[in-house]
Amino acid sequence: MLPRLRRFAIGLCGNPADGDDLCQTSLERALANRDKWRAGTRLDSWMYRIMRNLWIDQGRASARRRETFVEEDAGFAVGGEGAQEAAVELSMVDRAMQALPAEQREAVLLVMVEGYAYREAAEIAGCPVGTLNSRLVRGREALLAILGESA
Amino acid sequence: MTVSRDELAAFADGELTGPRAREVEAALAADPSLMRDLERHRALKAQLSAHFDPIVDEPVPDALAALLRSAGDGPASNVVGFAEARERIAEKRRLPRWSWVAGPALAASLALVVLVPRGGDENEGYADARLAGLLDQRLVVEQRPGDATRVLLSFRDRAGVYCRAFSGRGGGGIACRDDAGWKLEATGEGAAGSRSEYRMAGADDAAILARAQALAEGGALDGEQETAARARGWR
After folding, report:
1. Whether ipTM exceeds 0.85
2. Is the CB of B67 less than 8 angstroms away from the CB of A24?
3. Is-contact A16 A10, C-beta < 8 A?
4. Which of A2, A128, B13, B227 has its CA 20 to 30 A from that of A119?
């Protein structure tokens, strides 16, 4: 299960370093809360839920940081264009995914990458199936628009 | 017949079943532009898989593996092994002991969905009229596989009170008969609140039966005992 959790984490975060950090925090949280897992319920869903909740919380925190340090971030992106080109080419999917709102990205990953049924994905995301479905539809349309030409 | 975008996406995700899925297949065969849309969905999925699936084959970073080792719950390769092992043991422990009586009921109810009154009922914490009627009357042996709600088994708890485990549309659980009616002692996930969508039955029924086992004094009632208990109004 850990490799799959890692894939989900990296997909959410957009890069392996942050993904592994999220994975680590999630495992720590799961181990600390192992008594709360109910036998007879799906362990993988429980782990995914822990991970996505942590990620959503982190996202709120880092969004606040971004508001404060926009200038600095913009500065980092300047220069070194030649070297960046190959990396950009490789990560079209990453960039497209990162362009999605968090909840759409999550829905796309759970259903299209992790292979969960809508109902299971909704349970992990803690939303009604209809909500999950509309996030997925919007996320998918956006990805098709961004990636469609290159696909 | 028209196929909406949502529906086509659901079809691509394998979420459509039954007659509607066949209708969409027919529409796809008749409409090349619809088929092109489906191909776009599939191409996107393939692109995502090609991008993310290799991560699964990568070795797990040492830091993560070490974290699990330090937790002292067995080899790191078995990831959250602690819970998986517990799940297996719990499954083994709970099912065989009840299977002589509840097995047929479980087998007959693969896609169950259950029924528990949510808050706001006039008699909160008790079975509603429909469920209570069923708990009053229905014997385990009388049930048919297609019944929306089934009584899994009946037993007496340590105080001698009659209790019945049930499972069906909207929720499942255990109800015990007291002066006021069928008091819900334990309810399945369906009643927990936010997660009210349909669920697979197997695991929930197992949880309900495990709870029944914890509450019961002695085994499940047989047909004769149930009939006698019903004649006395389960008191």
Report:
1. no
2. yes
3. yes
4. A2
| A145 touches B: beta carbon within 8 Å | no
Residue of B nearest to A26 (CA): B64
Highest mean pLDDT out of A18-27, B81-90, B101-110? A18-27
B158 touches A: beta carbon within 8 Å: no
Q: Which two tokens stand for residue A86?
A: 């190959």
Helix orientation angle between A118-125 and A129-147, rounded to the nearest 10 degrees: 100
Burial pattern A114-138, b for ≥16 Cβ within 10 A else e, equals: bebebebbbbbbebebeebbbbbbb
Return the percent helix, strand and coil in chain B, to nearest 5.
55, 15, 35
Residue A71: the pLDDT is 41
Contact B44 A93 (CB under 8 A): no
**Contact at 8 Å (CB) between A122 and A107?**
no
d(CA B49, CA A113): 6
Map residue B168 onto helix, strand or coil.
strand
Cβ contacts (< 8 Å) between B79 and chain A: which residues? Answer: 1-2, 5
**In chain B, what are the domain boundaries?**
5-57, 99-231
How, if at all, do strands B171-178 and B162-168 pair? Answer: antiparallel
pTM: 0.53
Closest CB to B80 among A30, A112, A140: A30
The beta-carbon neighbor of A2 closest among B6, B79, B90 is B79
The C-alpha atoms of residue B95 and residue A55 are separated, in whole angstroms, by 37
